[in-house]
Amino acid sequence: MKRNSISLACAAFFLFVIVTSCGGQKTTSLVNTLTFDADDFNSIRLDYDADDIYVLESNQANVVLKEYMNENKESYYAKTSSKNGELLITEGKRPRRSSFESYIEIYIPKNNTKNLSLHSTSGTIRSEIVLLVPGNFSVDTTSGTVEISNVKASAIKAASANGSLSFKNIDAEKIDVQTANAATLMNEINGTILYLSKGGKLTASQLSGSGSFHASGEGSLDISYVDVTGDISAYSKNGTLTLTVPDSLAFQFSAVTKQGSIQTSFSEQLAFTDHTALGSVGAYPDKTIALETRNGDMKVSRRSYEKK
Questions:
Q1: Is 218 inside any structural domain?
Q2: Count of alpha carbons within 13 Å of 159, Cβ hemisphere only?
Q3: How far apart are the C-alpha atoms of 93 and 204, rounded to whole Å?
Q4: 181 Cα distance to chain centroid
Q5: CB-hemisphere CA count at 13 Å for 188?
Q6: Do strands 52-57 and 79-83 pair parallel, antiparallel, or not at all (unpaired)?
Q7: Where does the pLDDT of residue 247 fall: very low under 50, low under 70, confident under 90, or very high at 90 and above?
Q8: Percent of the chain beyond pLDDT 70?
Q9: Of 33, 64, 77, 191, which residue is least crowded by CB atoms under 10 Å?
């Protein structure tokens, strides 16, 4: 009887250990804070593997990094270096366990960053604050999610393999986006856009400026301009190509396809063959729109927009 009692007690103890171990996931909390004088460097580069990166506005002149983890070990903390005016921040020696969780916050003065570069291989990169970057702003991921809004920069560059990209209220002289199969959203973008993809879908609305769009695989293009200040070109190999421009725009138009169809809202101003459509639209056309597909269908229309 005594032996049975001991056995039951041991079994209960081991069951308690198993239950508490399985349900004892630690909460994620702030474990490390680093502060940098923004006047000491011209650019910031963050290079992380799986961490989510959140960009927030600093209420002081300093750049502040905060790391949140559910395990607190100094070896996990960020590594920093400064060379040639660049502040580089990388992750520490993080564990590979799936139970480990972490993310970071980077607080940046609104008017005090000349160049900014953010990388997370599989994490989310999100910035919704107003960012004025006099130099270049770049963001890239392999399979993560990128959500960027309210940025004004000299140039913006974004890259993704299989993640997703979202940009809203962006103002830059040049916006360079390169993807493999990422889904891309653009809204309220002002500048010259260079878009290159193999697959994935581009949905771009309320654009102002000019652009070159190239989908070399299965990707589709859905592009809408409210103001056109330069030439527009677009190529889609197998996906559909949809373009909308203001009805006040005058332009030289060319559309070429191998197997797809061509539909426009101004067909009476064009000369059609089996696979081409050419012509001038509007009085004094000073812009060029050149479109091409191999197997995808093409639809182009003019639309009236109310000026704000």
A1: yes
A2: 8
A3: 39
A4: 13
A5: 9
A6: unpaired
A7: very high
A8: 90
A9: 33
Residue 171 placed within a domain: no
Single-letter residue type at 244? T
pLDDT in tens, 44-79: 999 999 999 999 999 888 999 999 999 999 999 999
What are the tens digits of pLDDT across the range 92-144?
998 988 899 999 999 998 766 689 999 999 999 999 899 999 899 999 999 99
pLDDT of the residue at 61: 85
DSSP code for 26: P
Question: Is 8 inside any structural domain?
Answer: no
Flag whether 158 is in a domain: no
pTM of the model: 0.88
How many structural domains comprise the chain? 1
Report how far residue 90's alpha carbon sits from residue 253's, in angstroms, rounded to the nearest whole number: 49
- Tell me the per-residue pLDDT of 215-231, one tens digit each, with 9 for 90 and over: 998 899 999 999 999 99
Q: Are 175 and 191 in contact (CB under 8 A)?
A: yes
The conformation of residue 39, written as its DSSP 8-state character, comes to G
From CA 246, how far away is CA 249, in angstroms rounded? 6
Strand partners, 82: 87
Taking the C-alpha atoms of residue 190 and residue 176, their distance in angstroms, rounded to an integer, is: 12
Domain that holds residue 253: 180-308
Residues β-bridged to residue 293: 236, 257
Measured distance CA(179)–CA(227) in Å, rounded: 25
Q: Which helix (H) or strand (E) element contains residue 15? A: helix 2-23
How far apart, in whole angstroms, are the C-alpha atoms of residue 201 and residue 75? 41
User: What is the DSSP pairing of strand 62-69 with strand 29-37?
Assistant: antiparallel
User: Which is nearest to 279 in space by CA: 300, 297, 294, 258?
Assistant: 300
